Predict the 3D structure of the following.
Amino acid sequence: MSSSYAEAGVDTHAGDRAVELMKSAVQRTHGPEVLGGVGGFAGLFDASALRDFRRPLLATSTDGVGTKIAIAQAVDRHDTIGQDLVGMVVDDIVVVGARPLFMTDYIACGHVVPERIAAIVGGIARACAETGTALVGGETAEHPGLMAPDDYDVAGAAVGAVEADALLGADRVQHGDVVLALESSGLHSNGYSLVRKIVSDRGASYTDAVPELTGYATLGDALLEPTRLYTGPLVRVLASPSGAGIHALSHVTGGGIAANLARVLPRGSWAELDRSTWSPAPVFRVLSDWAGTPLTDAEPTWNLGIGFFAVVDPAQASAVTSALEAEGIRSWAVGEVSTAPLPNGDFEQGAKGVDGGAVRLTGAYPA
């Protein structure tokens, strides 16, 4: 009696086919800095450009997409998840003012379906190209017996670089700085365990049409709206004259609105964010209505329409807003930073192990 790898559930030929299908998309992210092409044991990136830096700091980030993947699997649509991955990984790097250099990805699945893997990686490659990031390598692994045949998960890691004296962060933030909110494209890639529970409890299907979700044919389409990519616009704004007024950035991901801003404010400072300055998109309102809870209950979980924060010099706030608008990103003043004594009330103090500032939301969302 003999056994083979194929009999164990691993199809190496399917893996090779997937690589062939994705190769051209990956190669389109390569500039002259990438050496060796696709398929090597290690991706190679020529770092000689860093010699032009006075004191280069490398920035790195790693993340996944989370349970949003379950919705992609349910509706059998896999071409947007890659952008979600890049948004979760690369947009964390620009928070410190870094320009992304390269990224790698990892896909684990129960069974390799070449066209599905190519769709996922195609989305990653398109988003990498949009953010100026070289996709220099990746891995696809079959895990039969551990994952169901149609299950998969994705993760990625990226590296960027920033001049030490251009590093953004809490040490630059000052009393009176304006907090700008940058509009999100929707739910992005956080809070989907809650989303899926709400949809399940409602007895709804991802293929249902929901009249309130204008512009989307189905609920699934609205929930799979890709994460907005902020890196390209922010890198360009930071390099512009108005960019000098940006003191700190924050990516609104897991933990919600207040906690993520608090992470980039200095200890002893605080900010109040005025809910009346924006109206959460219909997808947030529909889900909150279905859950029978107010929008305020979702603030620690969903971005509710704010995907990023920029903390800026008040003299530059208008210029930064205009520069972002020119890049296709709507932004608005949502609050300001204070170092006066902390008022009474419930504030979110720091987050994710960072002993930062304090933030709370005030007022009411427009009806």
User: Anything to note?
Assistant: Residues 114-131 form the longest helix (18 residues). The CA atoms of residues 170 and 264 lie 5 Å apart.
